[in-house]
Specification:
The chain is of the alpha+beta class and about 180 residues long. About 35% of the residues lie in helices and about 15% in strands. Helix 2 crosses helix 5. The structure holds FE2/S2 (inorganic) cluster (2 copies). One FE2/S2 (inorganic) cluster binds near residues 51 and 64.
Length: about 180
């Protein structure tokens, strides 16, 4: 019986957690049942639809086919962890709304977590690259084009903001300027 459960330590959305897990349980079940993180959806539960995607140490995984015990010592990020301290939406969440990339919303949290992985690379990806990177998601509503637009829009905004910051910093480094 004791071998059936294991105590693990992990970080979930920035908070350190300690929890006893059934060694047969999936990370999806741990996040939903123990931490009430219901953005993590149960779609196919066999790694086919992407509805359960979360970031593990910055990398996107299907949490339904990832055992909860494997999360020991890892840093987990779910959609809930993207919100600001007062529940403000992140840029990519807002872009999904603005570009009508959400309809029934079932696929949306997992899709956004894949988008976050892409955006965190801080580089410009072609449409083709984004399509390939997002290809692990099934969406029955949006037809995918709106999702692509939302990812591209956020990517552009972040790259423009980074370029503006860099320009400002290099202007400040010039001699005899008043920054
Ligand atoms: S529920 Fe995990 S991939 Fe479908
Ligand atoms: S918005 Fe309905 S499945 Fe994607």
């Amino acid at each position: 019986m004791s071998k059936q459960y294991k105590l693990i330590h992990l970080t979930v959305n920035g908070k350190e957690r300690e929890v006893m897990v059934d060694v047969r349980a999936s990370l999806t079940d741990l996040l939903r049942n123990d931490f009430r993180l219901t953005s993590v959806k149960k779609g196919c539960e066999v790694g086919e639809c992407g509805a359960c995607n979360v970031l593990i140490n910055g990398e996107c995984f299907n949490s339904c086919i990832y055992l909860a015990v494997w999360a020991d010592g890892k840093d987990i990020l779910t959609l809930e962890g993207l919100e600001g301290p007062n529940g403000e939406l992140s840029d990519i969440q807002q872009a999904f709304i603005d570009e009508a990339a959400v309809q029934c919303g079932f696929c949306t949290p997992g899709t956004i977590m894949s988008a976050v992985e892409i955006l965190n690379e801080g580089r410009e990806l072609s449409d083709e690259e984004i399509r390939i990177r997002m290809s692990g998601h099934l969406c029955r509503c949006t037809g995918y084009e709106n999702i692509l637009r939302a990812v591209k829009k956020t990517m552009r905004q972040r790259l423009d903001a980074a370029a503006a910051r860099e320009k400002e910093a290099s202007a400040c480094n010039k001699p005899k300027t008043d920054c």
